[in-house]
Design goal:
The chain has 14 helices and no strands. The protein is mostly helical and about 300 residues long. It has a single domain, classed as Orthogonal Bundle (MetI-like fold). The longest helix has about 35 residues. The chain starts with a helix and ends with a helix.
Length: about 300
């Protein structure tokens, strides 16, 4: 097994990029994107932070209210429920997508028949919009039309699958729908990583008589670190942006049982005309994302530097 790990380490390409100065034309080509980042992204963040420190309602106001909006925000039961829901949803969604995506990638990596067709089938849901996904799964999970109705017609009269109208289980129906949509993306990323592994590794494993599952668990999966990191970041962004699927499936209901931060922000920004509170919620969400992703990217960059040394 030690020899196999050594073989895997040798299989990793180690190339040190040569530093070079970008020509003026390259800087000019980058200028529009730089301006977009500075004014469209950073500028709007600063403006949102400024509004969150005011008593703005329908329109932005120039008064200064300190952290009053943040105090109101964390005394708002609907906001606290949305945070609880997004934590539950995020944990279930990311774990399920990573597990299913890895299993699908390993399955296709066995050079199965009709591999191209299977890749298309598994990846196709990701091409759909979250609104379309939400509507389809709303029909599937509707107790009067979907799975429960079919079971009742098959004489399973006591079968119940009414999670979408159950306040305690409704958030898990959104997990089911979005995992179905996003697992194919994880599969594609991890399959690309699997196809980049040197065939000599598998030859060495066969010679040593090591079971295939153990090679995957001990050697292959650790080598997929960069691909898994990319998949994690993309899934995390989907969690933070969760809005369309909730609106299409449940409208945040029953009641406010499936409320999420993005829907809270949109409702208070447009529906309740409370720009100050919506801006405060946006800044809290932004700070939370930065607090989670910054250490992640820092650790990843440090690991890359250690490899280059």
């Amino acid at each position: 097994m030690h020899a196999l790990k050594l073989q895997a380490a040798r299989a990793r390409p180690r190339q040190k990029p040569l530093p070079r100065r970008l020509p003026l034309a390259a800087w000019l080509a980058l200028l529009p994107m730089v301006l977009t980042v500075v004014f469209a992204y950073l500028g709007t963040m600063v403006w949102t932070a400024r509004v969150s420190l005011s008593n703005s309602r329908t329109f932005p106001s120039g008064d200064f209210a300190g952290f009053a909006q943040y105090a109101r925000l964390f005394h708002n039961d609907r906001w606290l429920l949305s945070l609880q829901n997004i934590v539950i949803y995020g944990a279930c969604f990311i774990v399920a997508c990573m597990a299913i995506g890895l299993l699908l990638a390993i399955f296709i990596d066995q050079r199965v028949v009709a591999e191209g067709a299977l890749r298309t089938v598994f990846l196709y849901p990701y091409a759909m919009s979250f609104v379309a996904t939400g509507l389809v799964w709303q029909w599937i999970l509707n107790p009067e039309l979907g799975v429960q109705a079919v079971l009742h017609k098959l004489d399973f009269e006591h079968a119940r699958f009414d999670w979408i109208v159950d306040q305690e289980w409704v958030i898990y129906t959104i997990v089911i729908a979005t995992v179905w949509q996003a697992s194919g993306l994880v599969m594609a990323l991890l399959l690309a990583g699997l196809r980049g592994i040197d065939d000599e590794l598998w030859k060495a494993a066969r010679i040593d008589g090591i079971p295939r599952w153990r090679v995957y668990a001990s050697i292959v999966v650790p080598m997929l670190g960069p691909s898994m990191s990319t998949a994690f970041v993309l899934l995390f962004v989907m969690v933070v942006k969760l809005y369309d699927a909730v609106v299409a499936m449940t409208q945040g209901g029953p009641g406010t049982a499936s409320e999420v931060p993005a829907k809270f922000i949109m409702d208070y920004l447009f529906g309740r005309a409370n720009i100050g509170l919506a801006s405060a919620a946006s800044i809290v969400l932004l700070v939370t994302v930065l607090a989670i992703l910054t250490p992640f990217f820092y650790a990843r960059s440090r690991a890359a530097l250690r490899k280059d040394v």
